[in-house]
């Protein structure tokens, strides 16, 4: 071997070594990247859980107030989603059976951290009310009459007024910029204040959708379809989401066939089937679920048990569908925890499955001009629904004196003018409720 060959060989060895080292580094970086992706996903899921758990502790006022809390936290403050996209999620929830506000929360968690994020949002937002309803059902309602507890509830109800009022103002500015949408919002509020009831609510939403579609046709006859942001385009084109929606549809259909045709093989299955059936049929939120549940499982419970559960659900934060937790304990006294878990899962599951099935198609449809016009009009009608709920049940159940109204004005000033964080308003509400209750004891 010549010296030149030797020199080439000697020089080549470091090159091969360097290439090998680069390959090892690349392989190691891929492994680290995968690990980091998993860590990031876990952290996102935990953040979703914590955010929704905190809201679940303070979210009094029913579905309308919950929409206000979500809008304030995830749209205005954290900016997880845009106002327009949030409006589309709210509009979808108005036409699906199940717990509307919880479906919106599930959809937010789903888009933030995938399916695990949706589950984390559901568990976080529902866990406080689940635990409280379980304790009330098993240990009795004795502490409901305690002065301090009553004061805390009174203060948090005032907070709900502040949050819903802020949501009405913010969403009005976002969704009611056109004259047509302003008329729809105020018209919805006027009609529903004069004619309360779920049938009128559905009718108003349908009329709003028709008016919005007609208005969009006249306005955009020569324009292209509305643009879709990158986030929505990614969701629409996601194969993972398509597979998930198909699986969710199969589970929903299987659940229905199980409810209708599978014989009653176990008390657990019977309990799940009853609440799954109720959750897949109820429109209009938690207040409407009471008569449907009474019809479904009424033979096994007394009217007093139903009314006690309904009253307890009014006194705790979170979704009204947590009534199922209370009833599950009553229906399965031999295994109260299993009864509460099965009933709660059964009544929430259909609505979440429908979100998984339809959310992707809903976003695709909303790209069309006519559908986009309908969605915009529905969002305006939702503002009217919030305005109606601001009066009843939120304001009516919370404000009992001039001082209460003064506290609401103070809270709105702190929230809108000085941009106080919601946690400080919670402190103010709890302090005011505790002081007033102690002063009258």
UniProtKB/TrEMBL annotation:
Annotated Gene Ontology cellular component terms: plasma membrane
Pfam family, one: Chromate_transp
Localization terms from the record: Cell membrane
UniProt cross-references to InterPro entries, sorted A to Z: Chr_Tranpt_l_chain (IPR014047), Chromate_transpt (IPR003370)
Coiled coil: none
UniProt entry tagged with the keyword Oxidoreductase: no
Keywords assigned by UniProt, alphabetized: Cell membrane, Membrane, Transmembrane, Transmembrane helix
TM segment ranges: 41-62, 113-136, 148-172, 184-211, 247-263, 275-293, 337-358, 370-389, 395-415, 422-440
Chief location of this protein within or outside the cell: membrane
Topology versus the membrane: Multi-pass membrane protein
GO molecular function: chromate transmembrane transporter activity
Superkingdom, natural source: Bacteria
PANTHER family (alphabetical): CHROMATE ION TRANSPORTER (EUROFUNG)
Family of this protein: Belongs to the chromate ion transporter (CHR) (TC 2.A.51) family.
NCBIfam families assigned: 2A51
Protein name: Chromate transport protein ChrA
Naturally occurring in which organism (per UniProt): Oleiphilus messinensis
């Amino acid at each position: 071997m010549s010296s030149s060959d030797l020199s080439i060989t000697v020089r080549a060895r470091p090159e091969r070594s360097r290439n090998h080292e680069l390959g090892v580094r690349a392989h190691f970086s891929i492994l680290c990247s995968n690990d980091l992706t998993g860590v990031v996903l876990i952290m996102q899921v935990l953040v979703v859980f914590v955010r929704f758990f905190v809201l679940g502790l303070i979210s009094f006022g029913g579905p309308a107030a919950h929409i206000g809390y979500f809008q304030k936290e995830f749209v205005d403050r954290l900016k997880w989603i845009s106002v327009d996209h949030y409006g589309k999620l709210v509009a979808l929830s108005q036409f699906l059976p199940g717990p509307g506000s919880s479906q919106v929360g599930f959809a937010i968690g789903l888009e933030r951290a995938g399916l695990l994020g949706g589950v984390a949002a559901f568990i976080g937002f529902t866990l406080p009310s689940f635990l409280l309803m379980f304790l009330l059902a098993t240990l009795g309602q004795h502490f409901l009459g305690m002065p301090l507890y009553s004061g805390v509830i009174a203060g948090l109800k005032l907070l709900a007024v502040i949050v819903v009022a802020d949501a009405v103002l913010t969403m009005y500015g976002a969704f009611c910029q056109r004259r047509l949408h302003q008329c729809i919002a105020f018209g919805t509020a006027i009609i529903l204040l004069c004619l309360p009831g779920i049938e009128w609510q559905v009718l108003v939403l349908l009329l709003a959708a028709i008016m919005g579609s007609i208005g969009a046709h006249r306005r955009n006859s020569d324009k292209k379809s509305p643009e879709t942001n990158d986030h929505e385009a990614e969701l629409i084109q996601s194969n993972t989401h398509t597979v998930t929606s198909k699986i969710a549809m199969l589970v929903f259909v299987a659940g229905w066939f199980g409810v209708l045709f599978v014989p009653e093989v176990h008390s657990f299955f019977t309990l799940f089937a009853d609440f799954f059936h109720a959750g897949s049929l109820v429109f209009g939120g938690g207040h409407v679920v009471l008569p449907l549940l009474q019809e479904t499982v009424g033979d096994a419970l007394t009217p007093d048990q139903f009314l006690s559960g309904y009253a307890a659900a009014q006194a705790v934060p979170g979704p009204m569908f947590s009534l199922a937790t209370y009833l599950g304990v009553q229906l399965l006294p031999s295994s109260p925890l299993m009864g509460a878990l099965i009933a709660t899962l059964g009544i929430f599951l259909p609505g979440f499955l429908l979100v998984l099935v339809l959310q992707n198609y809903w976003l695709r449809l909303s790209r069309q001009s006519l559908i986009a016009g309908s969605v915009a009009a529905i969002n305006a009608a939702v503002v009217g629904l919030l305005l109606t709920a601001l009066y009843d049940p939120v304001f009516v159940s919370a404000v009992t004196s001039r001082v209460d109204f003064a506290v609401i004005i103070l809270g709105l000033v702190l929230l809108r003018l000085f941009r106080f964080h919601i946690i400080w308003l919670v402190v103010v509400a709890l302090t005011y409720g505790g002081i007033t209750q102690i002063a009258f004891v």
